[in-house]
Amino acid sequence: MSKVVSALNHTKAHGFVKVEETGVHGMITVRGDLASKEMAAALKAAIGADVPDVRQIVHADGGAVAWMSPDELLVMTAYDQANDTVAKLTEALGSVHALVANVSDARAVFRLSGENAREVLAKVAPVDLSTEAFGAGSFRRSRIAQVAAAFWCNEDNSFELVCFRSVAQYVFDVLKVSAEEGGEVGFL
Amino acid sequence: MLILECPYCGVHAEETELHAEGEAHLKRFGPGSSDDDFETYMFMRENPKGVHFERWRHSNGCGKFFHAARCTMTLEVFGTYSAQTLEPPKDIKDKISAKRPGWSWGNFS
């Protein structure tokens, strides 16, 4: 099998916040009844996480699970664990009406780190990113400038962002400009 | 700017995160219906000055369709509600009646 390369191969930009593409990640779309006990058991078995609350992300030893919509979750693992995790989830969900799909290669992931990381996002997404409204564990699907993206806040106040691989360069350029020195807003 | 609360994910989404999907509560007349019924279903739309019911989609978000009741003249939003319904829920109707007594829209009032 050929070597796996992420969309921008770890490209970085340094402004008042560091923007970096973080390489390949395992990502699995899971759709089904999020309130069912089968779903809770499947997530526990696959990565050891609970079902996240609305617009939240839950981290566990085996990865993370994010709330995407009332019937959709995004399960994140290491890239080389994705297929195993799909198999575990599929088996655990059994005959329940559900969908499990490995979408790792369809996505790109960015990290924004630095004291004012939330400012960089707040400039390009129509989301209330104040510390009270969007703290650690918050997850949001929205848009970055003109394209769809989802992002969440980590414990260390860094942000991670997922978008489609096909728009990775666009998203990187938008974030890079938003993070340029001199572009601090100082409001959040 | 128009801000609608998505009833599925609870986000107060502004217009750019949403997509307008036309009139709410359309009843489809498909194959086998009369020409008049089909024409009405296909082409005839409410175009009120005042209370209006619309379908919206949280396209840059959870992706779900929902309904919104709002005023086309003042842009006041009376409320949003689930798309899995054939008519506006009572609490939305009551809210509109309190603010626009005697309103009517399509078959609703």
UniProtKB/TrEMBL annotation, chain A:
SUPFAM superfamilies the record matches: Folate-binding domain (SSF103025)
Transmembrane segments: none
Organism the protein comes from: Shimia litoralis
Protein name: Sarcosine oxidase subunit gamma
Upper taxonomic lineage: Bacteria, Pseudomonadati, Pseudomonadota, Alphaproteobacteria, Rhodobacterales
UniProt-listed InterPro entries: SoxG (IPR007375), TrmE/GcvT-like (IPR027266)
Superkingdom of source: Bacteria
TrEMBL record, chain B:
Family annotation (InterPro entries): SoxD (IPR006279), SoxD_sf (IPR038561)
UniProt GO molecular function: sarcosine oxidase activity
Top-rank taxon: Bacteria
UniProt record, GO biological process: tetrahydrofolate metabolic process
A family per Pfam: SoxD
Protein's name according to its UniProt entry: Sarcosine oxidase subunit delta
Organism name: Shimia litoralis
